[in-house]
Amino acid sequence: MSGENSIEQLKSLGDGRFEITFAIADDMLFDIDLQLQLFCVASGQELQSIHIRQAGWDVAWLPRGRYVAEVDAGSVTLPTTGARPKALLWDQTNNKPRLLSALESGTPITEGRIAVPDRLQKPSWSLRSLDGLALEDLSWNRGHDDWFFKHFDHAARVIVNLMLADNELLKGRVLDVGCGDGMTDLGVFLRCRPREFVGIDPSRRFDLLDEVAARNHIPDDWKRDPALRFEPFDANALPFDDDHFDVVLSWGSFEHIVGGYAQSLREIRRVLKPGGLLFAHPGLFYGEYGNHLGEFFDDPWIHLKLPPEELEKRVKATPPDYMDRGGEFASPDDYWQWYTELNPITVTDFEKELRDLGFEPWRVALRTSNLVEYTPELQQYGFEQLANTELYVSAWNRK
Ligand SMILES: C[S@@+](CC[C@H](N)C(=O)[O-])C[C@H]1O[C@@H](n2cnc3c(N)ncnc32)[C@H](O)[C@@H]1O
């Protein structure tokens, strides 16, 4: 399909309902919003302005194609002179909303009232594809239970929009250290379109990315883009020149680098340009998700309560409650091996290590547990260790 991202048609269906037909011409649009406005014909005053996002929709992306949204504008009293509807299509609504197209209907609506008079009616929306795409299958409709959503949508947005604030450096050269299956990388790459994006991970799980992306209805244009590539490199010995990258990312990987991550942090600093940005989300060993054994136990601090031999016995004897990991299934022995390799990262230590290396914190976000219940075995651990569940940091490389 060629052409523009545009609203093609806005039609009144009566009773306060409208149909908005729009076309997406780019491979994909991200963080989309649709808006319907109603203006008084006589005064030009805005009577109603409703957004699909306000109605609880999170349209994180749509691929190229044509779509129809139907909207019930909810309770609004129309002036006798009538109202003129206008539809607007936005993207990049997380940080930098961009108006892509707007269309005003030439025909005003003249019914005295467009919602049922004896009840309050909230705006509601529906969306369908005109090309047969099953929108219920898209990651943003499945939400946080879905592995692809957690990476392609959630992780990419935390990195790009929240922690790096859509910084221009994301258009330069970007490295992801410990990229795993590459879903987050694809999400960041398609959102930012950097000059170069390299994901590295010795596990080579990124080899499955083509298949996973196709299953998730991501248009395959990215496969032909040489700017994105994956390599099985080791974080401890990065085969890149000094000062090569503008941004280095690492999501959930520092805790997994066998033998500690001090060397990989030094390598990251070396390959990052002066003034470059680091984003890090290191797993916190003592926190709620710290043992990475959630598939086996409900008690998040069980690794701090049981003797190691007992923990091992239970892991190896329990069939894991498999979560969707993009189609990969590990054995209890694998889980145990990964557990024994974990680095016991804490917020305080990680901050000190970053500062000692010359990183200057820019943004920090911490998530904490709702409640930590101290048992005798936990008394030896501090509040900060147990209550912090997730740490996100962005920092400038000051050389
Ligand atoms: C929990 S996974 C996270 C992967 C990905 N970032 C994600 O969010 O799905 C941790 C990853 O760190 C990788 N890793 C471990 N040691 C590494 C090393 N020395 N160099 C690069 N990656 C490493 C593992 O192979 C694994 O894929």
Helix content: 10-25%
| Major sheet summary line | 7 strands, antiparallel
Instruction: Give me the CATH fold name of the largest domain.
Output: Rossmann fold
Structural class: alpha/beta
Task: Please identify, by name, the CATH architecture of the largest domain.
Answer: 3-Layer(aba) Sandwich
Under CATH, the homologous superfamily of the largest domain reads Vaccinia Virus protein VP39
Any idea of the CATH class of the largest domain? Alpha Beta
Tally of strands? 14
Radius of gyration: 25 Å
How confident is the prediction overall: mean pLDDT?
A: 94
Order of helix and strand elements from N to C terminus: EEEEEEEHHEHEHEEHEHHHHEHE
Number of DSSP helices? 10
Strand content: 25-35%
The stretches of 5 or more residues where confidence is low (pLDDT under 50) are: none
Number of domains: 2
Shape annotation: elongated
Bound molecules: S-adenosylmethionine
Distance between the termini: 47 Å
